[in-house]
Amino acid sequence: MNPAQSTARRKPATPPPPVSVFPFNSGSLLSVSDLTLEGVGRVLTRATELEQMSPLRRGSILAKRRLALLFYESSTRTRTSFELAAKALGADTTLVSSLSSSIEKGESLKDTGLTLRALGAEGIILRHPSSGAAWLLEASTRLPVINAGDGMHEHPTQALLDLRTLVMHLRPGLREVNDQTLAGVTVSIVGDVLHSRVARSNMLLLPRLGARVLLCGPKELLPDMATSSGPGIEIERDFETALRASTAVMMLRIQAERLAGLKLDLNDYKGKYQLTGQLLATHAPKALVLHPGPIIRGMEITAGVADGPQSMILEQVMHGVAIRMAVVERALTSAGRPAAQEPKKGDLA
Ligand code: CP
Fold it and tell me: Which CATH superfamily is domain 32-154+319-333 in?
């Protein structure tokens, strides 16, 4: 055999596994997958420590540090709780919204981020209608970036506060998070899964702690391919069956702003997927009812359920402040790469 033949028969070398360059800055939280299970545990523990700390001590942790909130989409809960969380730690915050800034004049996300950095922002909290926007901003600025919701993609702090809500009720006194923490727990996520970044982040997080996630909704809002989303995730189209299996049920709003021509018969939808008091009493009398908000009373959930004893909706909102304190502290105190480091040629920018 000549050397050429031997080379031709040699098995090709196995390519190395893909290595993500993200996040560039170890303070960033772009995806809930940026956190190891240990990291998730640290956020939960730190949220409680910060919540219980005296306001004076807490307020010195990030005294005079500068954080920009860059919001290209409307928000009540996320924006307010990030602002309250940062201020509780002593940080100075500034809000830049797409409607009252030079974004309206056409300034790009990259240039807006670089401008905020030049103005002294040490971290940016971003909400944006485009999936992946937080990654682009981080690559452009190298600042710690916290993803406060990017399009239909992810909303990591919402998943963390949802987890805190579940743990407080189902595993009170929990000391350590591991892959069995939510063993035996079934969380049904119901409604507009297709457009929901909250669903996506919860689907990435909850199965890692041992939970089973049931996705429930019509094909228009929950295509069959969602079954390939990962282990621990299943589709159950029948709402009553999903309810009977649920330790917790997470209702989702139909995101009318992202339907883009998709026609839905809303009366039919309500008949099949609206959470009513009667359905809850019959099929899931002990289940926790979650909703990331905003809720549309009379559409995906009745007023009676939203205000009822099983509703965790306002508790979720409260957990948002504690979780975001921990995430903001992590962003600004993490030993990330230097914020002023310029992107190198070939980096995504
Ligand atoms: N849950 C959530 O993201 O709510 P907001 O859009 O009000 O921030």
Answer: Aspartate/ornithine carbamoyltransferase (3.40.50.1370)
What confidence score (pLDDT) does residue 10 get? Answer: 59
| pLDDT of 349 | 41
The residue whose CA is least distant from atom 1 of ligand 1 is: 292
Ligand 1 neighbour 78 (Cβ under 6 A): yes
Task: Assess whether the region 32-154+319-333 and the region 156-317 belong to the same CATH fold.
Answer: yes
Fold of 156-317: Rossmann fold (3.40.50)
Q: Output the CA 213–ligand 1 centroid distance in Å.
A: 22
* Residue 284 burial class via C-beta count within 10 angstroms: exposed 0-12, middle 13-18, buried 19 and up: buried
Measured distance CA(278)–CA(274) in Å, rounded: 11
In angstroms, the first-to-last Cα distance of the chain is 50
How does DSSP classify residue 66?
A: E
Task: Calculate how far, in angstroms, residue 158's C-alpha sits from the geometric centre of ligand 1.
Answer: 8
What's the sign of the alpha-carbon dihedral 273, 276, 278, 280?
Answer: positive
Helical residues (DSSP H) of 122-172, grouped into ranges: 133-141, 156-170
pLDDT band at 1 (very low <50, low <70, confident <90, very high): very low
What are the boundaries of each domain within the chain?
32-154+319-333, 156-317
Check pocket membership of 223 for ligand 1, CB cut-off 6 A: no
Amino acid at 31: S
What digits encode the pLDDT tens for the residues 86-132?
999 999 999 999 887 888 888 999 999 999 999 999 999 999 999 99
Q: 293 CB under 6 A from ligand 1?
A: yes
Q: What is the mean pLDDT of residues 203-228?
A: 89
* Nearest residue (CA) to ligand 1, atom 3: 78
Q: Is the CB of 320 under 6 A from ligand 1?
A: no
Which band of pLDDT confidence, cut at 50, 70 and 90, is reported for residue 155? very high
Q: What is the pLDDT of residues 295-341, one digit of tens each?
A: 999 999 999 999 999 999 999 999 999 999 999 999 999 744 444 44
DSSP codes, 227-275: GGG-TTEEE---HHHHHHH-SEEEE----GGG-TT----HHHHHHHH-B
